[in-house]
Sequence to fold (252 residues):
Amino acid sequence: SPQPLLGRSALITGASSGIGAATAELLAARGARVALLARRKDRLDELTGRITAAGGTALAVPVDVTDGSALGAAVSQVAEVFGGVDLVVANAGIMLPAPIEEQRADQWQTQIDLNVTAAVHTVGAVTPLLVAAAAGGRTADLFTTSSIAAQNIFPTFAVYSATKAFITHLSRHLRAELGGKDVRVSAIEPGIVGTELQSHVTDQGARDWLAGAAASVEFLTPQDVAEVIAFAAALPRRVNLQQVTIMPTRQA
Ligand code: NDP
Fold:
């Protein structure tokens, strides 16, 4: 079927740019209704317009996911409008590498607040909806956007990489916990993807390293990652891609 995700109700965090935006657009093209969560309302409205114009269904929900009660309200709103949620992409994240000796406590905290705390709160808020969807006989998916940084070692990326190791390990545990309830859990671990992620990096050494990588490696596109998520979501209910590493061909 050209629309294998017809009837699915998806919620995507970090949907205003990069991997989240591309995933929302592709899931919608494959038939899912998509709820778009992020802070930048203008971006969400623009994406909603594009999805709607292409014949899809999208709901823009501007929210700061680090605000636990606002996140809870946003998830409830989506569940009410869509009559449930059966596909979640917990994707919002930020990468702020810097030498540990520089004591960038503000940047450590920003990464932990978003990549770890908000991700756990997202998972907590959506899990009852996913369990209910699966109990009702629907396919239910929880995708997390981890990173190869969860597995590989990159000097100056220690805190970011640790947040992603947390996400991969969290996901493996949740898969074991929720699989018995027919909820699939998948950790997506991309190598470098060309998105706005790199634009937030302030550390000059890391900026130089990324520029060097850009000169020798054709980065993945956000659509490349979206294809993997859409593929996994369309697999038969008994099949769970637990962990997917997706690399630019030229990235070592
Ligand atoms: P982007 O910067 O393009 O996307 C990040 C998204 O997160 C944006 O939509 C942003 O929206 C959202 N976001 C940030 N802060 C908040 C917040 N407080 N509340 C709600 N939403 C927020 O980067 P990517 O698409 O690359 O990143 C997506 C995920 O992929 C991240 O978890 C990242 O770690 C991971 N990843 C990225 C790789 C890469 O090379 N690009 C490689 C491996 C993993 P807004 O600012 O509007 O709130």
